[in-house]
Design a protein that fits this description.
This protein is mainly alpha-helical and 249 residues long. It is built from ten helices and no strands.
Length: 249
């Protein structure tokens, strides 16, 4: 995947602001605030209340992504390596994958209470199946000739997982995590809209939108967008460093 430079990212951001300002001029209503008024508000709030909500949401989403990755990657690698086990669990995984798990939010609240853990658990649950399926399919698609050649050297299942399946699946793992970032933030936004006092979803809906404080609302939207960009770019940098490391070997 192409790695964008700071200059290209800056140009994209300027283009986004120009488009936003043009739409604000066309609509010409308070509901669509100008970026010229929102950006100073964003900078001011990030140094205070909005910054706290930003940190809380960041901690929640990173914890959820790590939990889902740590559990889904080994499971996907095992299923990709063990054909019979994969055939046994595939029907169940297909059914669970298709369920929109955000509807389980009330159930999760009942089971685990209204807490950070329940929000993190729900996000992790959604991401788990996304990452699991991608890693499973990637590892199952490895050439049999490669697997057999390593086996002839005496490698067992653990050695194959560690030295063949896992390294070969790293690009797929990073792609799955990258794609999951948008989903995780969307679920977090919904989960934080009620029954909590901290988080970007709470700030945008409860603190800003319901009070008709549109500039603060857009500042919150910028904050959650900025969080998504940071996470996406961090995965991009990690993928670039891994690909460079492989090329140097």
């Amino acid at each position: 995947m192409k790695r964008y430079t700071i200059k290209e990212i800056s140009m994209g951001f300027v283009m986004f602001l120009i488009l936003w300002e043009a739409l604000a001029l066309v609509v010409n209503k308070p509901i669509l605030s100008s970026p010229l008024s929102v950006l100073p508000m964003f900078i001011k709030l990030m140094a205070g209340e909005l910054g706290i909500h930003f940190l809380v949401s960041t901690l929640r989403v990173i914890t959820a992504i790590l939990a889902a990755t740590i559990t889904a990657v080994p499971a996907g690698l095992v299923l990709g390596q063990m054909t019979k086990l994969n055939q046994f669990f595939s029907p169940l995984i297909s059914i669970l994958y298709a369920i929109p798990k955000i509807v389980l939010l009330p159930v999760v609240y009942v089971l685990f209470g209204i807490s950070d853990f329940s929000k993190i658990f729900l996000i992790s649950l959604i991401l788990f199946f996304q990452i699991l399926v991608v890693v499973r399919d990637e590892s199952a698609g490895l050439p049999k000739t490669l697997i057999n050649s390593v086996r002839t050297l005496g490698a067992g299942r653990l050695a194959l997982l560690r030295f063949v399946y896992f390294p070969a699946s790293i690009p797929a793992i990073l792609t799955a995590v990258r794609v999951s970032i948008g989903t995780s933030l969307a679920v977090l936004f919904i989960a934080e809209q009620s029954l909590t006092e901290y988080g970007l979803g709470y700030f945008i809906i409860v603190r800003a939108y319901q009070s008709l404080r549109y500039k603060e609302m857009y500042a919150g939207i910028l904050a959650i967008s900025f969080l998504g960009f940071l996470l996406y770019y961090l995965i991009d940098i990690l993928e670039w460093k891994i690909s460079r490391h492989k090329a140097d070997q």
